[in-house]
Amino acid sequence: MSHFSFRDAVPGDEALILRFICELATYENMLDQVETDEAALQRALFGPKPRAEALIIEKGGEAVGFSLWHYSFSTFSGAPSLYVEDVFVREAHRGGGIGRAVFKHLARIALAQGCKRMDWSVLDWNAPAIGFYRSIGAKPIEGWTGQRLTGEALAALAS
């Protein structure tokens, strides 16, 4: 396994994070859905009331990936949950233990923050990711289907 390290994202990393988001979206065939920009990332990650956190994965002084997460709250457990929004490692650096190390790092953060669980979503066609998640002990949430309200439907409900 080659040496890699993590660092917390800092102001000035917005362009790098946006590039990784676009690379991830390209991999997932969803580039047309990327709406964010550097200013939105700056507000979300480093504004007066941050909504998410991120880390940069580096190998040999080069940024090779990132992870972004935020917290939710479970009324049933009475505790926060860490929601992993994204983990992305450039293809040339996959298979060397970086993904496992990222999830281990996030699990430590979750426990330190009093979380009782970590959650994330995976595209149903992404067999390599699903296989990896099973290898670290993750299980699908049986009986639950994700729901989303966006765009006109969101605006209509709010009005």
What this model shows, in words?
With 159 residues, this protein is of the alpha+beta class. It has a single domain (5-158), classed as Aminopeptidase (3-Layer(aba) Sandwich), CATH 3.40.630. The protein has five helices and five strands, in the order βααβββαβαα. It has helices spanning 14-27, 38-46, 98-112, 127-135, 151-158, and strands spanning 5-8, 53-59, 62-74, 79-89, 117-119. It has a five-stranded mixed beta sheet, sandwiched between helices. Helix 3 (98-112) links the parallel strand 4 (79-89) and strand 5. Helix 1 crosses helix 2 (38-46). The longest helix has 15 residues, at 98-112. The radius of gyration is 16 Å and the shape is globular. The N and C termini lie far apart (54 Å). The model has no long low-confidence stretch (mean pLDDT 95).
Tags for this model:
alpha+beta; five-stranded mixed β-sheet; 5 strands; globular
